[in-house]
């Protein structure tokens, strides 16, 4: 029996914001969590945090990687991967 594993594929990632009330995102791999004030989405370009009020997930298709969110959108923020500080040489010789 074969099992299907989830692989990370670099799919196209686009964001369309219409009037700060409707957000369409492509390249969605997973939705980590959502409520009326925040939606946390794993995209092909990193973790995206959407903040606002009265947020509702209108459409979600992980097969096609599409997500639509409605509500009062206040901010979009990508979480950066934590990188170790210091010069390249100092990180190499630890």
Strand-helix topology:
Blueprint: E1 14-18, E2 22-26, E3 28-34, E4 38-43, E5 46-61, E6 66-78, H1 88-92
Antiparallel strand pairs: 1-2, 2-6, 3-4, 4-5, 5-6
Summarize the biggest pleated sheet: 6 strands, antiparallel
Helix content: under 10%
Measured by DSSP, the beta-strand proportion falls in over 45%
Total number of helical segments?
1
Structural class: mainly beta
In N-to-C order, the SSE pattern is: EEEEEEH
- How far apart lie the N and C ends? 45 Å
Shape: globular
Uncertain runs with pLDDT below 50, 5 residues or more? 3-7
CA gyration radius, whole angstroms: 17 Å
Number of strands: 6
Overall pLDDT confidence? 85
Give the strand line-up of the largest sheet.
1-2-6-5-4-3
Quickly list its features.
single chain; 94 residues; mainly beta; 6-stranded antiparallel sheet; 1 helix; 6 strands; 5% helix; globular
Structure notes:
With 94 residues, the protein is mainly β. Helices cover 5% and strands 55% of the residues. Strands 1-2-6-5-4-3 form a six-stranded antiparallel beta sheet, with no helix packed on it. A hairpin with a 2-residue loop joins strand 4 and strand 5. The radius of gyration is 17 Å and the shape is globular. The termini are far apart.
Short overview:
The chain is built from one helix and six strands. The protein has 94 residues and is mainly beta. The chain has a six-stranded antiparallel β-sheet with strand order 1-2-6-5-4-3, with no helix packed on it.
């Amino acid at each position: 029996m074969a099992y299907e594993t989830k692989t990370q594929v670099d799919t196209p990632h686009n964001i369309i914001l219409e009037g700060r009330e409707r957000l369409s995102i492509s390249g969605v791999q997973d939705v980590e969590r959502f409520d009326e004030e925040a939606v946390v989405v794993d995209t092909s370009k990193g973790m995206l945090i959407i903040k606002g009020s009265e947020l509702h997930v209108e459409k979600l298709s992980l097969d096609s990687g599409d997500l639509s969110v409605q509500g009062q959108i206040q901010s979009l923020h990508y979480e950066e991967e934590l990188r170790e500080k210091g010069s390249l040489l100092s990180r190499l010789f630890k």
